[in-house]
Amino acid sequence: MAEIILNVDVREGVGTGGARAVRRTGAVPGILYGGDKAPVAISVNEKDFRKNLYTGKLLGHLVTLKYGKETQPVIAKAVQFDPVSDRPLHFDLMRVDEDQMIKIEVPVHFINQDQCAAFRQGGSLEIVRHTVEIEVRADHIPEDLIVDLSGHKLGDTIRISDIKLPEGVQPAIHDRDFMIASIKVSSAAMSEAADLAADEEAAEASATEQADASTEESTEG
User: Fold this and answer.
1) What is the pLDDT, as a whole number, of residue 15?
2) What Cα–Cα distance (Å) separates residue 7 from each residue in 31, 40, 52, 191, 220?
């Protein structure tokens, strides 16, 4: 069972007014949905919710919902935040079975950039997907997907097939080997390369002029 337990209360007031009333009591309003049951408006103590949220093991993970003596596994699907104060304003929980196959987005993290020669050559990482939707059992959701950059070169395209997926995990998109990121030559590196080429061309022209001048002097002499 999940590590995090959310002690919830069922709330009667719904809509914007009801949500505001819940927040005034020091709680965060939410909604529980999914399965073969109707959605239920719920709330959680804001202090406890923040504590669980900041562990990094709440959003997108299997957690335990507790209402009185009843418990059930749920997935924390989304949390809305105040854009100014970053206070949690609302959350969504989805009912699941622990061994149920679900689709869920997980973050993509890139490692070993310092061991990739492409970046020392002026390359830059262009990320196409910061998250990937996967199919996985509810009790086996990975923290993230890891891309090891150490063996890549300038111009490489990194696709989902380049990621070593955890056992039991597969991408939700089956019909194509979609792109995750690419390693491109940065505009600064291109400008530097152009300047270097121009300097080399100018130096070569100057050397040619000097050689021609020397030849003319030898001929006149």
Assistant:
1) 77
2) 14, 14, 11, 58, 100
Q: Is the dihedral of CA 172, 79, 67, 7 positive or negative?
A: positive
Are 105 and 136 contacting, i.e. CB atoms less than 8 angstroms apart? no
Q: Does the predicted model carry a pTM greater than 0.85? A: no
Residue 136, Cβ density class (10 Å: 0-12 exposed, 13-18 middle, ≥19 buried)? buried
Task: Tell me which residue of 72, 50, 70 sits closest to 62, measured CA to CA.
Answer: 72
Which residue matches tokens 């792109």? 179
**Structure tokens of 199?**
């300097």
Q: How far apart are CA 136 and CA 171, in angstroms?
A: 9
| Banded pLDDT at 187 (limits 50, 70, 90) | low
Q: CA Rg, the chain, in Å?
A: 29
At 39-81, the pLDDT tens digits run: 999 999 999 999 999 888 888 889 999 998 899 999 998 999 9
Nearest-5° Cα angle at 157, 187 to 197: 30
Is 132 in contact with 160 (CB distance < 8 Å)? yes
Query: Which residue in the block uniquely carries the two structure tokens 């993230």?
Result: 144
